[in-house]
């Protein structure tokens, strides 16, 4: 198969979808890999490194989309890429369709095959291609939150871990999944008083067993959230419903009950955010203030640490990308329930129910496209 890796063009996005090591693995399976020039520079991988690994370098994004049968990316295509994507071209990337009707309709219109990292799902309900970036984002949420708690950046002027004789900050984490767990570990390690909320009692029991003494677990519900935010210095939104829009657990009215200078970091921003006042921001302009509450809502947080993020992402995506390249998308999805769940849009039809529901658009069962003989 001919595989194309374009340079990411979303603002301040320095990750790349494939490392030179990943290129070598693809070539070992007799596939051809084209890399757009300078695609890996932001992550520390030169064109020469890709050439040495066996990739061919193309001069622009148009050439990549024109030649490739499968596009491997990191972030969702942006408007300038919509018309570059061809009918029946497989695009393997993070899409987060439920947060963008424009993107959803554009991919319907170009009749491509959209396989989303974030909805590839194992039998145990884990999301293997979301995990590495969730781990990065969870840890970064506390790192960035600690910075914006400083007075010069608009925060309350509180050191997250305190010092002897001065209480540490109170950190509230809503969601006990990968993001929330990693955020709790970071905040606890820095010495903060941490509260982590989740709607699953078994998950709270697990967290209570593994977390240090300065982390307490509380059932997530409207009353408990409303109470906890009044005394929290840093709040991390870490809620995920796979492929669907995140629920608003903190409303705008609730901001008025928070202390001035409180910082909220909404890691769920890619899926619409779990804080009502959340709107996507960039690393260039990461925060804004509403009702004296500092909002950090960068939509591609792991892009700030592109080397770590790129290597972690390729470690996770490469085995699936090889399956797709070896078998073609249809046979690979017939053989793998995990990949099958990654299909969101196929040849102009939405085949993932939560995306159709988000915009009240028609839904076609994915098996409609997976019946019969596979085409490689």
TrEMBL record:
Source species, domain of life: Bacteria
Alanine dehydrogenase/pyridine nucleotide transhydrogenase N-terminal domain ranges (all copies): 4-137
Keywords tagged on the record: NAD, Nucleotide-binding, Oxidoreductase
Organism expressing this protein natively: Microscilla marina ATCC 23134
UniProt keyword annotation of Ribonucleoprotein present: no
Domain Alanine dehydrogenase/pyridine nucleotide transhydrogenase NAD(H)-binding: from-to ranges: 149-297
Pfam families assigned to the protein according to its UniProt record, in alphabetical order: AlaDh_PNT_C, AlaDh_PNT_N
Class of enzymatic activity (EC top level): oxidoreductase
GO BP term (any one): L-alanine catabolic process
Positions of the catalytic residues: 96 (proton donor/acceptor), 270 (proton donor/acceptor)
Binding site for NAD(+): 134, 198, 203, 220, 239-240, 267-270, 298-301
GO cellular component: plasma membrane
Keyword Hydrolase (UniProt): no
Catalytic reaction list: L-alanine + NAD(+) + H2O = pyruvate + NH4(+) + NADH + H(+)
Enzyme Commission designation: 1.4.1.1
GO molecular function, one term: alanine dehydrogenase activity
Record-linked CDD domains: L-AlaDH (cd05305)
UniProt: substrate binding residues: 15, 75
Record's protein name: Alanine dehydrogenase
Assigned protein family: Belongs to the AlaDH/PNT family.
């Amino acid at each position: 198969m001919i595989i194309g890796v374009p340079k990411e063009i979303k603002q301040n996005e320095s990750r790349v979808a494939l490392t030179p090591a990943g290129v070598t693995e693809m070539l070992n399976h007799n596939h051809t890999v084209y890399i757009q020039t300078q695609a890996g520079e932001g992550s520390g991988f030169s064109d020469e490194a890709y050439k040495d690994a066996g990739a061919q370098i193309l001069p622009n994004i148009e050439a990549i989309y024109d030649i490739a049968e499968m596009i491997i990316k990191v972030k969702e295509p942006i408007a300038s890429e919509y018309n570059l994507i061809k009918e029946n071209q497989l695009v393997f990337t993070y899409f987060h369709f439920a947060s963008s009707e424009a993107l959803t309709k554009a991919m319907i219109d170009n009749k491509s095959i959209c396989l989303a990292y974030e909805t590839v799902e194992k039998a145990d309900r884990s999301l293997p291609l979301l995990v590495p970036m969730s781990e990065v984002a969870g840890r970064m949420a506390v790192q960035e939150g600690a910075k914006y708690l400083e007075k010069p950046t608009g925060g309350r002027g509180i050191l997250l871990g305190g010092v002897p004789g001065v209480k540490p900050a109170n950190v509230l984490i809503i969601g006990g999944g990968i993001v929330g767990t990693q955020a709790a570990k970071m905040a606890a390690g820095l010495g903060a008083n941490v509260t982590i909320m989740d709607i699953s009692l078994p998950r709270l029991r697990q967290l209570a067993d593994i977390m240090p003494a300065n982390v307490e677990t509380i059932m997530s519900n409207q009353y408990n959230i409303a109470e906890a935010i009044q005394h929290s210095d840093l709040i991390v939104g870490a809620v995920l419903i796979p492929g669907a829009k995140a629920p608003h657990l903190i409303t705008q009215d609730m901001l008025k009950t928070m202390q001035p200078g409180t910082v909220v970091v909404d890691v769920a921003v890619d899926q619409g955010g779990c804080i009502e006042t959340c709107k996507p921001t960039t690393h260039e302009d990461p925060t804004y203030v509403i009702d004296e509450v500092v909002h950090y809502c960068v939509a591609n947080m792991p892009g700030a640490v592109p080397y770590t993020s790129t290597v972690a992402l390729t470690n996770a995506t490469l085995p699936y990308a090889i399956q797709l390249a070896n078998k073609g998308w249809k046979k690979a999805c017939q053989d793998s329930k995990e990949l099958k769940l990654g299909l969101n849009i196929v040849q102009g039809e939405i085949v993932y129910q939560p995306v159709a529901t988000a915009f009240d658009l028609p839904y076609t069962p994915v098996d409609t496209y997976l019946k019969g003989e596979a085409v490689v």
